[in-house]
Amino acid sequence: MNSSEPTPLIYPSSAIRHLPTHLAIIMDGNGRWAKSRGLPRTAGHKKGADALRRTLDNCSKAGINYLTIYAFSSENWKRPSDEISDLMQLLQHYLHNELETLHEKGVRLRFIGDLSKLSKEIYGQLEHAKHLTERNKDFHLTIALSYGSRQEIVHTAQKLAQLVKDGKLETSQITEELFSQSLDTAGLPEPDLLIRTGGETRLSNFLLWQSAYTEFYFSQTLWPDFDKADLDSAINDYAKRERRYGTSSE
Ligand code: IPE
Ligand code: IPE
Ligand code: MG
Hints:
The protein is α/β, with parallel strands linked by helices. It has a single domain (14-239), classed as Decaprenyl diphosphate synthase-like (Undecaprenyl pyrophosphate synthetase), CATH 3.40.1180.10. It contains eight helices and six strands; from the N terminus they run αβααβαβαβααββα. Strand 3 (107-112), helix 5 (120-133) and strand 4 (139-147) form a beta-alpha-beta unit.
């Protein structure tokens, strides 16, 4: 290819204009994927980790710079302890195996949620990953772990209330902007598109504040099967939408 020729577009130019900057994903359906094959749920979670690797790559190739994924909810602590420990082990392996590669690719890792509930070992791993990658700018991967949006909002309200109590903040200074910047997701843009795989059409306590004007896309595909074609469908669907934010389209 002649160097003066433009780089081939992966998506039509009309879609490029509407490419989401920030994609959030509720990665659901691992258990059902495994069950339908007569496998233990953990096998589904393992395949889910492969789907994450693939999706991260596909997002970055498509030009999406922010990906926030729901990996473990505050309510998922209610699952059987065997499944929880398998999931925690998988998380440790994922970080152990992927961190260097992610860092080389310029990925900045963030973690949101009540991380104090995780083991000391995992917490240490997360802190290490966060610090190692904090100067990276090419891609922003945020992993929601032990995350619940209501808990995040309550915690934020408590932090701000304490500042008022200590005389460091006036009640009138508590604005939407300040509140946003006091959440776990401070510094991240709000998600433009949120995909939930696995066929359920609910938020399950994910990014309630942040998704006020997010576009939703519900996919029947179980997370372990989620591939480039599924991502493309979601991106192309998003590209056709008109985001009005309460205004009229005229
Ligand atoms: C999502 O898959 C992964 C986590 C919640 C950790 P599930 O484990 O919820 O799978 P299903 O919904 O039971 O199929
Ligand atoms: C949401 O999925 C949490 C994650 C994907 C990590 P769940 O499977 O826990 O949600 P519900 O129980 O179907 O609402
Ligand atoms: Mg589920």
